[in-house]
Automatic annotation (TrEMBL):
Originating organism: Fundicoccus ignavus
Protein name: Argininosuccinate synthase
Primary gene name: argG
EC class of the enzyme, as a word: ligase
Binding site for L-citrulline: 87, 123, 127, 176, 185, 262, 274
GO cellular component: a single term: cytoplasm
Residues in coiled coil: none
Length: 400
């Protein structure tokens, strides 16, 4: 009799490593391990060997970092998305693409369920399951952290040792880390408590701590076409190449490190440390270019939309009518966001260094202190009379 199949979202980390033997103990099914390459640096052969050695019947490794950059990171940059005005959503943006690939493989394999290793306290359980539902609303979901008796990462390490599953996490260094092309996040251990100061040099992987950052400033120039970056320092590159290049440049200057208290989807606060050097540079450059090429009214509306867009992505609603509508709006706003932006990088700082666009709305003649044919200093008198009229009426009636 042919066994049923379960597709496991596999990373090779602590949680998903122990999930394979747990699934085999609790379900009479073959486990299909799927590790989606969204740009994390891995020895893929070693990851596959570990999955098979842990009990997986099969291993898939779809490489979609290029799709991740072009269809998820770049639209987010164009939308200026920052959750709670701060977090660039590196993890949240990758989850819907991973969910899409999990469903595709589950369908190809005839699997009856998809399993993920997200904890019951985290955001990713929502993001994965929202993404899976968008492609297969009937797919069975298995979430071990909501079922098993393991209550902590310390318990998980004990279980791994019991089952002979090798893991790199230790009870002394028990951080939970998520890496993709856009960022690396760090949570858990001594990071959890807001009162704890941490040694960034011991935590960061792709970004230099400020003490170790380059002592020499560097200027980077990014060219955009319709809101999307197309070249760095005069070299035309694909989206994923641009992110990787800027990660390298920004990383050595300590750019894009965020130590932050965030409000999770399910209601609790948590502390995380994020490394996002390349996307931080892209976001700064893009917003600066928009300041030159968009009208005041467009910027104001887009700021509001960007806040809602970030919330939507954070909560796992990438595949939604609202997202499609927002992206249509953003695409329209980006028609004139073309030009070149230069930024100086130094010890975690990003400083403006030059900005040009064929669609620039800045006019030297109008904005300068001299006279020109569109505006004279006398024109301001009538404008001020109009905007101060309500204040004058209130004062006359003794209301202020």
């Amino acid at each position: 009799m042919t066994k049923e199949k379960i597709v496991l979202a596999y990373s090779g980390g602590l949680d998903t490593s122990i999930t394979i033997p747990w699934l085999k103990d609790n379900y009479d099914s073959d486990i299909i391990a799927v590790c989606v390459d969204v740009g994390q640096k891995e020895d893929w052969e070693a990851v596959e060997k570990k999955a098979i050695a842990s009990g997986a019947a099969k291993f898939y490794n779809p490489h979609v970092f290029d799709e991740f950059a072009a269809d998820f990171i770049f639209p987010a940059i164009a939308g200026n998305v920052k959750y709670q005005g701060t977090y660039l959503l590196g993890t949240a943006l990758a989850r819907p693409l991973i969910a899409k690939k999990l469903v595709e493989i589950a369908h190809a394999e005839g699997a009856t369920g998809i399993c993920h290793g997200c904890t019951g306290k985290g955001n990713d359980q929502v993001r994965f399951e929202m993404g899976i539902a968008a492609f297969d609303s009937e797919m069975k979901i298995i979430a071990p952290w909501r079922i098993w008796d393991i209550k902590s990462r310390e318990d998980a390490i004990d279980y791994a040792n019991l089952k002979g599953v090798p893991v790199t996490s230790t009870k002394e260094k028990i951080y939970s880390e998520d890496e993709n092309l856009m960022h690396i996040s760090h949570e858990g251990g001594d990071i959890e408590a807001p009162e704890n100061a941490v040694n960034y040099a011991n935590i960061l992987h792709i970004t230099a701590a400020l003490e170790d950052a380059s002592n020499k400033a560097e200027v980077v120039t990014i060219e955009f076409e319709k809101g999307y970056a197309v070249a760095v320092n005069g070299e035309t590159l694909l989206p994923y190449e641009i992110v990787a290049k800027l990660n390298e440049i920004g990383g050595k200057h300590g750019i894009g490190v965020l130590d932050w208290i965030e409000d999770r989807t399910i209601g609790m606060k948590s502390r995380g440390i994020y490394e996002t050097p390349g996307a931080t540079i892209l976001m700064e450059a893009h917003q600066r270019l928009e300041s030159l090429t968009l009208t005041k009214e467009t910027i104001k509306i887009k700021q509001h939309i960007s806040m809602e867009y970030a919330e939507l992505i954070y909560n796992g609603q990438w595949y939604s009518q609202a997202n499609e509508a927002i992206q249509a709006f953003i695409t329209k706003t980006q028609e004139t966001v073309t030009g070149s932006v230069s930024l100086k990088l130094y010890k975690g700082n990003i400083v403006p260094h030059g900005l040009t666009s064929p669609y620039a709305l800045f006019d030297q003649d109008v904005s300068g202190f001299g006279e020109d044919d569109l505006f004279t200093h006398h024109d301001a008198q009538g404008y001020i009379n109009v905007i101060t009229l309500p204040t004058k009426i209130q004062k006359r009636k003794g209301l202020i």
